[in-house]
């Protein structure tokens, strides 16, 4: 009888301990907060800084005519010990209505960044509306998204 009572007491204590421990976990944040122009963001291997957002009159003479072109000037710093390829055409840009902007084929930054080195380049997007825009970088391995809110200068 005493063994049964100890077994039941042990089960009750274990159940209470487990119940008390669950539900106290802090939920992990899955998405990064919105960042702004001139804010360096550590994306696990690269520090990305969108330095400037504006509309440009620069055009490629061999491509279709577009209403306006959004140009993002960015600096990318490799904080890892290995080379990392950065492709600005992999950025996703959405207008205020959530519509994805298409890449404008111009001098988009596509570079291999050496360890501990920094490079500056541009990303170009076709736009039919005015800002603000949301720029999203998705880490190629972790799939974590990093967002910036940009409002282009005229």
UniProtKB/TrEMBL annotation:
Domain DUF4352 intervals: 36-144
Swiss-Prot/TrEMBL keywords: Signal
InterPro entries registered for this protein in UniProt: DUF4352, Immunoprotect_excell_Ig-like
Leader sequence segment: 1-19
Descriptive protein name: DUF4352 domain-containing protein
Species this protein is from: Listeria rustica
């Amino acid at each position: 009888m005493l063994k049964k009572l100890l077994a039941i007491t042990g089960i009750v204590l274990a159940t209470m301990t487990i119940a008390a421990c669950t539900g106290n976990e802090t939920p992990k944040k899955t998405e990064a907060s919105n960042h702004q122009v001139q804010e360096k963001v550590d994306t696990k291997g690269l520090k990305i800084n969108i330095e400037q957002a504006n509309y440009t009159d620069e055009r490629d003479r061999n491509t279709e005519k577009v209403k306006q072109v959004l140009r993002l000037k960015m600096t990318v710093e490799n904080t890892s010990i290995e080379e990392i390829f950065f492709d600005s055409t992999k950025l996703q840009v959405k207008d205020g209505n959530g519509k994805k902007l298409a890449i404008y084929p111009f001098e988009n930054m596509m570079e291999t960044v050496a360890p501990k080195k920094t490079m500056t380049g541009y990303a170009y997007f076709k736009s039919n509306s005015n800002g603000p825009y949301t720029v999203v970088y998705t880490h190629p391995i972790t799939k974590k998204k990093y967002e910036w809110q940009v409002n282009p200068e005229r």
